[in-house]
Amino acid sequence: MSALSGPTYDPDMDDRKTSLTVDVDPGLVAYAKQLVEAGKAPDVSAVVNDALSEKVGRDAVDRLRETAARADPAKVARMMAHVDAQAAALPGR
Amino acid sequence: MSEEGGATTTPAPWVLDVSVLTAIARADPEVTYLVIALDGRGRPLIIPVLAITVASSDAGTEDGDIALRGLERLENVIVAPLKDAEQATRLAAVIAKTGLATGDAHVAAVADASVCPILTADAPKWREPATALDDPLHIIEIAEPPEG
């Protein structure tokens, strides 16, 4: 058997990482380094990745709320009443 | 959440089927509003991963995928994985018994295992599958009530 190791399985199915050069406020860099030193993140890249990922999630929720804002309130009220009536009729409810 | 006699109770979870997830991925305002409102009431909402996959394919847009990721971020939404061989083979059994396609079969398998209702925008689709398992599946339809 060779000692060479091949690619490993990523159970998280994450996309491959891409290098990025950006300018960041010094205070934010210091905070990222503090997180790494405190063992709360493996490296500064992970801190930046997590922050961007968090923003993507928040923006996605905002997009959902923008879609919901276009709803007809009277129609939704009728639909919700119908949902509630069905739920109330379920066995054990 | 609701309070009964001073004790806080969490409502029973509901499982969102492919029709609901596809409506959200296609930016249906009323269905999206209703699901956000249910989440705001504290109702746990389960979204099986294979149903997300089918809804993403059905919508076929980047905006649709963003909506599905946003749904996952709501406070009371829980993603149900397909985590091991036992669950995978149990899903195969549900497909065989109900004749459902894979996405909604995952919905049925989760609802059956958790004994919780399915929220759908397409109730007729569930008429036969709902009685195909050992215990009946309970269906809640998102629709305007019939007149009269």
Count of DSSP helices of chain B?
6
Low-pLDDT residue spans of chain B: none
What's the alpha carbon Rg of chain A, rounded to whole Å? 24 Å
Order of helices and strands of chain B: EEEHHEHHEHHEE
SS-derived structural category of chain A: mainly alpha
- Mean pLDDT across all amino acids of chain A: 90
Instruction: Strand order, main sheet of chain B: write it out.
Output: 5-4-3-6-7
Uncertain stretches of 5 or more adjacent residues of chain A: none
What is the first-to-last residue Cα distance of chain A?
62 Å
Number of helices of chain A: 3
Order of helices and strands of chain A: HHH
Based on Cα principal axes, name the global outline of chain A: elongated
- Range of helix content of chain A: 55-70%
Describe the structure.
The complex is a heterodimer of chains A (93) and B (148). Chain A has 93 residues and is mainly α. Chain A has three helices and no strands. Chain A has helices at 26-37, 44-68, 73-88. Chain B is α/β, with parallel strands linked by helices and 148 residues long. Chain B is built from six helices and seven strands; from the N terminus they run E-E-E-H-H-E-H-H-E-H-H-E-E. In chain B, the strands form two sheets. In chain B, strands 5-4-3-6-7 form a five-stranded parallel beta sheet. A two-stranded antiparallel sheet of chain B has the order 1-2. In chain B, strand 1 (2-4) and strand 2 form a beta hairpin. In chain B, helix 1 packs across helix 4 and helix 5 crosses helix 6. The longest helix of chain B is centred in the middle third of the chain and has 14 residues, at 85-98. Chain A binds chain B through residues 56-65, 67-72, 75-76, 78-83, 85-87, 90-91, 93, and chain B through 12, 24, 27-30, 32-34, 36-38, 63, 66-67, 69-71, 73-74, 117, 119, 138-145.
